[in-house]
Amino acid sequence: MREVSYFAPTDVGEAVKLLAEHGDKAAVLAGGTDLVPQLNYYEIKPAALLYVGGLGLDYVKEEGGKLVIGAGTTVAHLLANDLIAKKFGVLAAAAHTHASPAVRTAATIGGNLGTASPAGDMIPSLMVMDAEVILASVRGERAVPIKDFFTGPGETVRAADELIVEIQVPLLPGKAVFEKIGRRKAQTCSIVSAAVRLEMDGGVCQDARIVLGSMAPTPIRCPKAEAMLKGKAINAALIAECAAQAVAESTPISDQRATAWYRHKAGTALVGRALAKAAGV
Amino acid sequence: MKQILSFTLNGSPVDVVVTPTETLLDVLREKLGVTGPKRGCDDGDCGACTVLLDGEPVRSCLTIALTVNGRDVLTVEGLGVNGDLHPLQKAFHEHGAFQCGFCTPGMLMSAKALLDHNPNPSRTEIREYMSGNLCRCGSYEEVIEAIQAVAAGEYKE
Question: How many CA atoms lie within 13 A of A122 on its CB side?
Answer without folding.
Answer: 27
